[in-house]
Amino acid sequence: MIGGGIAGAAAAYFAAQAGHRVTLLDAGAGRSSDVPAALLNPVRGQSGKVEPQALAGLRCTWALIAELQAAGQRIPHGQTGVLRPVPDEKTQRKWAAALPAELPHIWREPAGLPPGWQSVLELPEGGWVSGAAFVRALKQASGARLVRGKAARIWASGVALESGEVLEAERVIFCGGSLGAKFSHQNGGEHGSHFEGATHRAGSLLLLSQAPQQPLSFGAYLSPAAVGGVLGATFETPAASHAAALAGGLPLNSLAWVLQKGAALRDLSGVQVTGRWTGVRLSPLRSEPDAAGVYHLSGLGSKGFLLGPLLARELVRELSS
Ligand SMILES: Cc1cc2nc3c(=O)[nH]c(=O)nc-3n(C[C@H](O)[C@H](O)[C@H](O)COP(=O)(O)OP(=O)(O)OC[C@H]3O[C@@H](n4cnc5c(N)ncnc54)[C@H](O)[C@@H]3O)c2cc1C
């Protein structure tokens, strides 16, 4: 397994459960899965789109967290539901039309929110999780051999590290996220075109001294975290590479935008900023082998924690059958 974010760590865990001996190689940098609080939110962005596998993904992730906790791992999370305020009737109608009947949801009055909202969609099966703790728990519980290093060359049955060391395996699964996206091009062969339009998008979370009990999201999200809370989103202009996406840091304009979105969700007076976390997410989704026989699971976009574990489980099942 190359890449130790949510995709690689979940794949390592499921592969070990299926009886495989797993080595997980990770460069130990640029991991968007270290996000301090990731929402598990099946109703996406401002479009209200619901992915076909959203409910299955949600349930897979919660079940995995429960399993890891039962095995003694500590993963800060809250299965609290998620609140999605909508600004007007038109948006409400659009979202309502996209909601599958099987996805539990409740439309509520926007009581307790700052003025300006039409109503609130509550998604009782949503919540939040500490990305870093979840990934750490998966790696530990997998029992995988952990190797720190950067892959310089990858083929169907092995990888050469920048250090010159070579690791061999029956199968190689590449889960390199934004930092590793160049391998999706190099090894892409005829599938390379899938990644020509790959976009790297940076975003930042402000770490806050306190947060609401339930996450709220429209534009930006406000969520509890292991300590205090977070306010942020992935909002920077898409870039062509991981480095280019990070180069902008956190522009003042973005900060102003995030604060405005946060204030629309909740009265933030008295709340202090205790830090900042910045990461880069990659899209579009890629879950398939390339022409060289290397399997890829990356491009999870803003759905890494909603769909990552489910897709990792499906990939491992497919490869084990
Ligand atoms: C601000 C922000 C907020 C977000 N909020 C949410 C949210 O609320 N809910 C949600 O579901 N998702 C959210 N996401 C998206 C989520 O973080 C990503 O979808 C997910 O973390 C991607 O996981 P991954 O395993 O594919 O990649 P990553 O976590 O980036 O992991 C890739 C790993 O591969 C390693 N790697 C790369 N190249 C090599 C190489 N050559 N050799 C060895 N190792 C290599 C890297 O070091 C890294 O550790 C957010 C992202 C950001 C930036």
TrEMBL record:
GO process terms (BP): methylation; tRNA processing
Entry's Gene Ontology molecular function annotations: methyltransferase activity; oxidoreductase activity
Assigned GO CC terms: cytoplasm
Record keywords: Cytoplasm, FAD, Flavoprotein, Methyltransferase, Multifunctional enzyme, Oxidoreductase, S-adenosyl-L-methionine, Transferase, tRNA processing
Superkingdom of origin organism: Bacteria
All copies of domain FAD dependent oxidoreductase, residue ranges: 2-316
Protein name listed in UniProt: FAD-binding oxidoreductase
Organism of this sequence: Deinococcus psychrotolerans
